[in-house]
Write a structure and sequence with these properties.
112 residues, mainly alpha, 4 helices
Length: 112
C-alpha cells in the first residue's frame, strides 16, 4: 500500500501589499456569502476582456486593477458600494496616507 501525499495549493505570492489585500477582501466577501464565485469569475473575465487583457498576466498591477474594478462593480450591483461613496473613501484614504508621517498609522476622519 502506497502513501498518498495530500496536495495543497501553494499560497499565492503578491508583488504588492494591496494586491494581497484586495484578493483577501474578495475571498472574505465570497466566504461570507455576499456573492457566488462563478459569478465573480464571469465578471472578472468580462473586465479583462473589456480592457483587452487577453494575454497571460503575471499578477501585476494591471491584473489587480482589473480585479479591484470588478469587485467595485460587483459591490455596486449588490447595492453595497455606491460609486460616489467609493470615490469619496478613496480620496479620503489618499489624503490620509499622503499627510501621515512615515511609520505612523493612517487614520481616516469621519466623513461629513
Amino acid at each position: 500500500m502506497s502513501d498518498c501525499a495530500t496536495y495543497s495549493a501553494p499560497e499565492p505570492v503578491f508583488a504588492e501589499p494591496w494586491h494581497a489585500q484586495v484578493f483577501a477582501v474578495t475571498v472574505a466577501l465570497n466566504e461570507a456569502g455576499r456573492f457566488d464565485w462563478p459569478d465573480w469569475a464571469d465578471r472578472f473575465s468580462q473586465t479583462l476582456k473589456r480592457h483587452g487583457l487577453d494575454r497571460d498576466l503575471d499578477g501585476g498591477d494591471d491584473y489587480f486593477h482589473a480585479w479591484l474594478e470588478t469587485l467595485e462593480l460587483l459591490l455596486n450591483d449588490l447595492g453595497a458600494a455606491i460609486p460616489a461613496e467609493v470615490i469619496q473613501y478613496r480620496n479620503a484614504w489618499e489624503e490620509a496616507y499622503l499627510t501621515t508621517p512615515h511609520g505612523q498609522p493612517v487614520h481616516l476622519t469621519a466623513s461629513k
